[in-house]
Amino acid sequence: MQFRAAILAATMLAAPLALAGRAAAQPVAGPYVSLGGGLDLKSAVTQKNINIGDRNYPGDLKAVFKNGYDLNAAIGYGFNNGWRVELEGDYIRNGADKIKVDGFSAPTSGHETQYGGFLNGIYDFDIGLPWLYPYVGAGIGWQEAKYNNFNVTGLTINEARGSFAYQGIVGLSFPIAPLKGLSATVEYRFIGLTADRRYHYTGSFLPVSIRQQGEYNNQINIGLRYEFAPPAPPAPAPTPASAPVAAAPAPAPAKTYLVFFDWDKYSLTPRATQIIAQAASDSKTQNVTTLEVNGYTDTSGTAGYNMGLSINRAKAVAAQLVADGVPASEIEMHGYGETHLLVPTGPGVREPQNRRVEIIFH
Length: 362
What we know:
Elements: H1 2-19, E1 29-42, E2 45-52, E3 55-57, E4 61-65, E5 68-79, E6 83-101, E7 104-107, E8 109-124, E9 133-152, E10 155-175, E11 182-201, E12 208-227, E13 256-260, H2 270-285, E14 291-295, H3 303-323, E15 331-335, E16 356-361
Parallel strand pairs: 14-15
Antiparallel strand pairs: 1-5, 1-12, 2-3, 2-4, 2-12, 4-6, 5-6, 6-7, 6-8, 8-9, 9-10, 10-11, 11-12, 13-16, 14-16
Helix pairs in contact: 2-3
């Protein structure tokens, strides 16, 4: 079990490094908080080195627990490049079921609680679906494992012992479009304790104790995560529509082409392909040094989600310009999310004119 747990922990730590190059964006930027909980499945715990009256006896006991529950809360920070770190506190509770030894079993009562904290490193993946972001992570920390009125055949344990702990995390997050910064999460966690811990039974005229090493929990959780302050994008260069009219003769304003998109999409429509082809053709006959490609969205969805969608729209237009013969070195690409609306609206409005990419000649 310890070897299998070590392999799992190593896999969790290595996966983000192996796959980091495949992700382009992530929905978490800046500080956030999360809250979750769910089903906890505790593996049977081995109790060994039974000591009665300062004398050791051979043989192991298996403490079996009922399915329980867990709760966790975290504060963290996303670096807007896929990575985030968080400090998490957790609480786990499982009722006692029975003790097994040499093919026999005896019922037990009471429960075990486990509580402590982890420092987690997590990586979010952009798989091209704006409503779904998988993530993997790993954490190290400390856990207190406490027996509460754990009773078997008249002997009782009421003690807490601490241990170094580790965990692996695999999850999915789903941005909730109407509420900016809020995402729902579903995840699996594996938690392992490593240190030797000795517990003492009471209720016997001779002192009785057992040694315990290794303790493993499998968890299936649901939760919510809230991002406080997505970074504000830089303001784009003014377009001809917003540029002031000069009284004196001035150079001709930069030429602009507008490419529109369907709601929550960054694929090109046939009409969009025609406009891009025209822009590519015109750029070859005019004195153009740079084609600025700026992506925008409407106000439906979260700010972080819209930022990623606007970047994907700009990428789609830039790729088509290159396919139409424009050198990639002449293209400057930006994503501005739901800022700088073409048609001013309130939050949560699906306005077609705001779902656009602007191609500006310089």
